[in-house]
Structure formats: C-alpha cells, structure tokens
Amino acid sequence: MTYYLLLLPALAVAGLGWLVRRRYLLLSQVLMVGGALGCLAIMGWQARQSLFPPTEKMPNRAHAVVSFYLANQTQREIAGRTGVVVLIFPPAKQLNARLAEDYANAFSAPLLRGHPEWQVQSVTLEAPPKGQAVSLAEFQQAIARFPDALAYVSYASVPADIAELFPEGQPSPPFFVFDPDGTVNWLTALKQGRIRAVILPRSGVDPAKQAGIGGDPGAIFNQLYYLATPANADQIAATLGAPQP
Predict the structure, then answer these.
(1) According to the 3-state scheme, what is the secondary structure of the chain?
(2) Residue 83 has pLDDT above 80, yes or no
C-alpha cells in the first residue's frame, strides 16, 4: 500500500510535465525528469524491501521458556474444561510492552495448540502508589475482572500475603507464578496448595542477558530457573537463601 501511495504522486508529476510540454518546455522537462527519477527511486526502494526485508527481533529464548513451562503446568490442571486462562502482568512501568507480549505469545502458542475450547486473556496490574511495591489489592482487582477463569498465571512480583488472594474455605483455582524477583513470598501459599507451582531465576542469573542461549527448552530451563512445587518448596526456599515470610 505504501508503495502505491508513493508511486502515484511521482507519476502525477511526470504526467503533468507531459501535459504542459507545448507551453512550458523547460518546466515540462523538469517535471518529467523529476517524476521519472521519483519513480525509479520508489521502485528501487520496493525492490530492496522485497530482497532484504527487515528482520523482526526474535523473542529472548530465556524468557520464552518460562511461558513454555507455565503453559505445560496449566494445561495439565485445566484438561477437560472450557474457558479462559488469565495472564497477570506487572504495571506497565515495571515490564515493557514488548516483553509482556513475548511472554503472552510464548504461553498461548503451546497452550492453545489443539485446544479451541480455551482462550487466553491478559490483564495488567494497576500501578501502586509511588514508592510502594505491588500489593495484594492489585492482584485482587485483577482477579475480580475474571472471576470465572479456569486458571491464573502471574508474571508479577509476589506480595508477602499472596496466600490470602483467594477466600479461605473455598477451592482455589489453579494459580501459577513466575517470581522475577526470586523471593520466597510464595512459600506459604505454595505449601497450602493455593499456588500450584512457582518459577524463579536461579541465583546470580539474569535471563535478560541470556538471549543467545541454545539448547532444548528443558536444558535452557534447568540452566536458568528453579521450578518450585509443594513437594520441594522448602528445599527451593533454602537454596535461594532468602528469609522466609
């Protein structure tokens, strides 16, 4: 479309030069030469775009593998049901839109393959007051927007009272967490079964600097991340060496 929008004015200039050639010879020549040069330049640009298309930046595999594992965990929990899976992302200032999109795409692709009965929706947490961390209240607001979701998957920092996200005495929906900060705020909720699994970066690892990492998803994951479950929650917490809530 852009090609034609640029080409038409150049043709119009050349055509105008042809029309006035008998009355304004010099002006006619200038217009026709200018129009012809414009057409040649535009066709050259189009040829270059066709032969050497701009390459889109590929997602960081170190980030994509997080979503791949979260999708596999979620798929097992919601098998046989129909509905929506909700992805919870940090406030926009804490996670750029491109990375959030990469996480969402890397999650949706394996989850939805062969499963038309599922949908994926994303929600961004409200920004907390300046100088404060994301709190349980922001999570509760996000959950309230999709109260009947099949499962929730969070990529946001975990507040210390995350175990109180769902009401006591009621079955908790599947809830999976990627804790980018590597805390143990999830420990109580995980041991209680309110969180099904947590992914955390290994100590001293910055996934953002691992864009060129190679290997299959399992090898990449084991090199960069821990997967905490109710069965190994205390062991992972001890490995992190962080104070427990």
Answers:
(1) CHHHHHHHHHHHHHHHHHHCCCCCHHHHHHHHHHHHHHHHHHHHHHHHHHHCCCCCCCCCHHHHHHHHHHHHHHHHHHCCCCEEEEEEECCCCCCCHHHHHHHHHHHHHHHHCCCCCEEEEEEECCCCCCCCCCCHHHHHHHHHHCCCCCEEEECCCCCCCHHHCCCCCCCCCCEEEECCCCCCCCHHHHHHCCCCEEEEECCCCCHHHCCCCCCCHHHHHHHHEEEECCCCHHHHHHHHCCCCC
(2) yes
Residue 125: closest CA among 94, 171, 104, 148: 94
Domain segments of the chain as ranges: 2-51, 61-240
pTM as predicted: 0.74
Distance CA 92, CA 181 (A): 16
pLDDT in tens, 119-158: 999 999 998 888 788 999 999 999 999 999 999 999 999 9
Q: What is the CATH number of domain 61-240?
A: 3.40.50.2300
For all residues of the chain together, what is the average pLDDT?
A: 83
Q: Tell me if 156 sits within 8 A of 89, measured CB to CB.
A: yes
CA distance 38 to 46: 12
